[in-house]
Amino acid sequence: MGISINTNVAASRAGMYLKSNHANLQKSLDRLSSGRRITEPADDAGGLAVSMKLEHTGKVLQGVSNNISNAISLLQVQDGALKSVADIVSRIGELQAMYNDPTKSTSDKTAYDAEFGDLKAQISAIGANTKFNDVNVFGATSDDEMKVSLNENLGKSTATDFLDMNDDAVLDGDVAALVALASLANVPVANADDSGDVSKTLEEIATRRADNGGQVRQLQYALANAQTQITNLTAANGRIVDVDIAAESANLARQQVLTQASAAMTAQANTSNDVALMLLQ
User: For a FRET experiment, which of 5, 117, 164, 209 has its CA 20 to 30 Å from that of 84?
Assistant: First the structure.
């Protein structure tokens, strides 16, 4: 090849390699500093698209998980109220037994009747005032207000994927008519259990608490499933976007050596045509 002043092919090639190696070095630095393999869409367009969908699903499931946890808390508040009502009903049964004691005076029985009235009022108060985040846990609601989705398909869930608190509500609008206690509302304590009202009421409350427990267990399984999916989706997304520190560190060292070598060769190539000056002297 002839000696040329205007065109230095070796320097051009060395400069091209220097530019490419320097760009690769910068890319490696970006990946290591960010911890992500994909720092821009051009790195892996398909992987980025999959990652965005996985990340979105994970965020939706996190919201679903929080909603399920809140629903569990609401049911626990409801069960606590039912337990209090069961204790009150048991006390009513105890009052009825003591009222029928022939050794009790009229004033004693009057006191029992007064306590009976107070207990019925407390049952009504529990039904009316027991709330979770300002939501009455026993009040009648619309079908959509007390449903919680158990998966990420928020708009496609079937009826079995929802907890319907309205259908399973202990009260139906009238807080004074708690379960079978409506039959106790206008009778004295002496007749409270004549037709098995107290026993039937306790059975109804026991059934409601059992239903509550079943719903809590259902939600706990759903919560565990959602959290497992979140973990798996996070791991899958990490395999796509997270950088392999060991491999990228090795690549960084390689690019540093190549960049330094190409820079040195570019400097030498720029002086290789100095021999033309010797010919002109």
Answer: 164
